[in-house]
Design brief:
- With 406 residues, the chain is α/β, with parallel strands linked by helices.
- The chain has two domains: 216 residues, 3-Layer(aba) Sandwich (Rossmann fold); 173 residues, Rossmann fold (3-Layer(aba) Sandwich), CATH 3.40.50.
- It has a seven-stranded mixed sheet, sandwiched between helices. It has a six-stranded parallel sheet with strand order 10-9-8-11-12-13, with helices on both faces.
- Helix 8 packs across helix 13 and helix 11 packs across helix 14.
- The longest helix has 19 residues.
Amino acid sequence: MRILFITDNFPPEVNAPATRTYEHGKEWVEAGAEVTILTCFPNFPQGRVYDGYKNKLKQVEEIDGMKVIRLWSYMSANQGFMKRTLDYMSFAWMSTVFGLFEKADVIVATSPQFFTTWSGWFLSKLKRKPWIFELRDLWPESIATVGAMSKESRVFKLLEKIELGLYWSSDLVIPNTPAFKTNLVNRGIPEEKMHVIPNGANLELFDSTRTNPELKKKLGIKEDFVVGYIGTHGLAHSLDFVMESIAGVEFNNVHFLFIGDGAEKERVKGIALSNNLKNVTFLDPIPKEVIPVYLAMTDASLVPLKKSDTFKTVIPSKIFEACAMGKPIILGVEGQAKEIIDEFGAGISFEPENSEEFVDAINKLKSDTELYKSLSSNALNLAKAYDRKKLAKEMLQVIRDRVVNR
């Protein structure tokens, strides 16, 4: 089976879409599939091409058995609606044109970003092959949630009509949360048209037996209890609230480590600087294979989002990676994510953007040794239930049974 996979993000980028696509594709190759990835040159989230690459017309690589075709695109930092839209649409156009010359039995297009699915639809029609909409984000709804677009605008309503049309036109929709599936069913998309494949963790890479006291010393972190956040510092992640909450309380022997980049990073760093916070460290993004090294140094993983009904449908992928390392989750997300954490007892939840509950969650986790041990053990159980290898094999089987061999 030949799979043509369209994604805006791919390693060496380290965000959730890049990681999921790479790990799924690697498993599919090992299972005998031919996998071709259409992507752009790595530049997320700064909008600058990574060292070792040049934003040229086309470059072909082989990565772990996958044929990876990198295409030119207009590059923009992950901020500013118009520039990001140009970024997304340029890749959609390029992937459509160059995708015509690649053989495929099935086409998979993943969101975010939304415009990759436009390319999937076009290629499906032009090549007369089935296509799959992998749904990772309810776009354009999520854009409106962070204030980048009004739900009452004509543009939003037009994009929403296109969104629904793409769901209908695809041969299969693969949402990564049950809530996304429910959202689509409530909007008229047939339940039988969907199959949920959630995010998960690479249990070989994220090893809970790792320790790293040397790194802690190297970074100059003297506090015993380290709360880590590794991921995009974007509009949706509520890190300004986190920093203002830290500034408003004198924590006892607690350090906060933030690793990553994004549209809000400089503003969040500015809050820390203006409040002269000594128990906060900011680091640049790190390669995926190094993330477990830094997670090993932390004691708990912070997973916040803005308070919004839209984000009740989201399950951040960083939950699974931290749990695979045995790190309890400090969760500021309602809905699906909270249900999973509560089901396994893998962390402590606080109401999004509620400073008092946020501070209480950290202090409780730090002070109660028995609770910490229990949550850590439960976190490992959660990760085992969401083993990425098993989920990748399930998705491949679904593609075979419901699309290619139907």
